[in-house]
Amino acid sequence: MTAELGFVHRFEPGGSRATLLVLHGTGGNEHDLIGLARELAPAAKLLSPRGKVLENGAPRFFRRLAMGVFDEADLKAQAADLARFVKEAAERYGFDAGRVYALGYSNGANIAAALMLLHPEALAGGALLRPVLPLEPPALPDLSGKAAFLAAGNRDPWAPGERVEALASWLERAGAEVELRWQDAGHELHPQELEAAQAWLARHLDG
Prior knowledge:
- It holds the Pfam family Abhydrolase_2.
- InterPro entries: AB_hydrolase_fold (IPR029058), LYPA1-2/EST-like (IPR050565), PLipase/COase/thioEstase (IPR003140).
- It is a single chain.
- By secondary structure, the protein is of the alpha/beta class.
- It has a single domain (about 5-205), classed as Alpha/Beta hydrolase fold, catalytic domain (Rossmann fold, 3-Layer(aba) Sandwich).
- Helices cover about 35% and strands about 25% of the residues.
- The protein has helices spanning about 35-40, 70-95, 105-120, 160-175, 190-205, and strands spanning about 10, 20-25, 45-50, 55, 60, 65, 70, 100-105, 125-130, 145-155, 175-185.
- The strands form three sheets. The chain has a seven-stranded mixed beta sheet with strand order 1-3-2-8-9-10-11, sandwiched between helices. A two-stranded antiparallel ribbon has the order 4-5.
- Helix 1 links the parallel strand 2 (about 20-25) and strand 3 (about 45-50).
- The chain is globular and about 40 Å long.
- The two termini are about 30 Å apart.
């Protein structure tokens, strides 16, 4: 663990050409999803930052004004800072900045979606677990050649179906290849969708 490059973070080497940007949910940290990331992508390099915004002491990647209401100004600023971090981390650790995929859950999935929409150069794609459309970008980005796996729960009170569908629509209109998978679940994750995410990552990380 290190606080270099502006984020407390953890970097794990791997034999793959690809790097997973591992993004925790609200209240998590740079260690929370390392085990899951290693299970889903055994050979990938792992870059796991801790969100810098605190909500009642719980780390997040951007502020929210109320449940489901995001502070868009802060979201844009934090997404820009995270994009900078990924670029500088690629130089620091010697990984390919063009082969970075996100693995994000909840708040982490939403900042990953914001990266794709606002800073498309930062990610080649991502597996986003329980995401919503975090904001409407000012212009349609060019996501041609990029891909996203969205894992949604049809009983998820934190990620309403229409906001999940809106994210998929924006990504598709921007040219991304999108796989949207619905699970009969709430905000919790199930083994079947993690298996699907693992298969998706296996196809894309070194494809």
